[in-house]
Structures are given as C-alpha cells and as structure tokens.
Amino acid sequence: MKTLEAKLGYSFRDRTLLENALTHSSFANENRGSLGSNERLEFLGDSVLGMVTADFLYKEHPDLPEGDLTRTRAALVCEESLVEVADLLDLGAYLKLGRGEEAGGGRERPSIRADAVEAVLAAVYLDGGLAEARKIVQRFILDKESEKSTSRDYKTALQELVQRESGRVLTYRLTGESGPDHAKTFSVEVELNGKAVGAGSGHSKKEAEQMAAKAAIAHLGA
C-alpha cells in the first residue's frame, strides 16, 4: 500500500479507506465480514471527479459555452481516461478480486479499473478533504489533458476540417486580456465565414487560439 500511496502522492491517515477502495464486489461477496465492496466509494468518487473537473473547466475556459464545457468534461472523465490513470498507478495489481473474477481476467478489465480510480479518489476525499482530492484529479487527469492539448495542433486539424468544403474561411480574433503582465490570460474567438464557432483562453495568444480551435472542432462535430 505504501508503494501505491507514493504513486498517488498522498498518505492515508485511515488506510482502511484505501483498502475498501480496492475491494471489488466479487471479493466482498466471497469474504463476508471483511471490508465491503468499493461500489459506494465509486459512487462518491464519480461525483467528486465531475465537480472538480467542472470547476476547473469553468475557471480555465471562461468563454466556452455550456455545451462545449459538457463535452470536454465528458471526455476527461470517461472510462478511457480513467483507465489511463489506473495504468499510471498500476492499480490493477492492488485490486482485491474474487476467485471467479480473478480467473476471468478482472484485473485487466477496463470497467473494474476505471471504477477503482473513482473509488480511490473518494477515499482520498474522505480521508483528506476536497483539496487533496483536487490535487489527485489535477495531477493525473487535468494536467495530462493540458499536455495533450498543447502537443496537438488543433489549428491545423480545424483548417483541414473546414477545407473539405470550398469557400470556407477561418478567422481568429483576440477578444480579451486579463491578469498581470507576468501571468496574462488571453481570450480568442475563431470565426467560420464570420460566424463564431469556438472560443478559448490560454496564457499566450497561441495557446488561446489552439483552445478556440479545439472548441470549434467539438462544435462542428468532428
């Protein structure tokens, strides 16, 4: 457990919470009287994850409309994203599974690993509060998404998308600046033939344009 705590960057005061988070229902059903399954923690963790992610997106992307915020949050908290977190933590190795689930390859099952991530997040929340849970989400999900966003050229992808039809022109427009000179936030809107199709913000004009292009791609359904 100490190895897992080191990977998480968090030490539990009540380690039974972490043990409970790693206990699958198949194990709990075979071992009556021991820890219950992680299903209740999974329920709580899902809400904590959604709230922290929504709060982050609301503050970091003040120009994104509700629909784009919803789609972005869904992408961040989906099973695929959570499985990536489970892989980073090698969470499958720590799971307590029943004999049948173990034999059936449950340790590698995406849904089980994704659920365990949510349960572990809830355990951190109950043990250390929202601030500690937020650190986990930031480190393993939100920061990783930022790295992906900056590494992908959304402007080029958007340009290629609109060029599928002739006569379509993209324009990027700076809509605002805020903050001190050493930590400015820029807001950009991208227009397609004069109609706004996406907006984004960032700590440089280039980053803001990339975020606006990303929002436009989502808006156009690509």
Largest sheet: 3 strands, antiparallel
Instruction: Name the strands of the widest sheet in spatial order.
Output: 1-2-3
Cα(first) to Cα(last) distance is 42 Å
- Can you tell me the residue ranges where pLDDT is under 50 for at least 5 consecutive residues? none
Helices and strands, in N-to-C order?
HHHHHHHHHHEEEH
What is the structural class? mainly alpha
Q: How many β-strands, per DSSP?
A: 3
Assembly context of the chains: single chain
Chain-wise SSE layout:
Layout: H1 2-8, H2 15-21, H3 25-30, H4 39-60, H5 66-76, H6 79-89, H7 99-103, H8 110-128, H9 130-151, H10 154-162, E1 170-178, E2 185-192, E3 195-202, H11 205-219
Antiparallel strand pairs: 1-2, 2-3
Describe this structure in words.
The protein has 222 residues and is mostly helical. Helices cover 60% and strands 11% of the residues. The chain has 11 helices and 3 strands, in the order H-H-H-H-H-H-H-H-H-H-E-E-E-H. Strands 1-2-3 form a 3-stranded antiparallel beta sheet, with helices on one face. Helix 4 (39-60) crosses helix 9. It is elongated. It starts with a helix and ends with a helix.
Keywords:
single chain, 222 residues, mainly alpha, 3-stranded antiparallel beta sheet, 3 strands, 60% helix, elongated
Give a nutshell description of this structure.
With 222 residues, the chain is mainly α. The protein has helices at 2-8, 15-21, 25-30, 39-60, 66-76, 79-89, 99-103, 110-128, 130-151, 154-162, 205-219, and strands spanning 170-178, 185-192, 195-202. The chain is built from eleven helices and three strands.
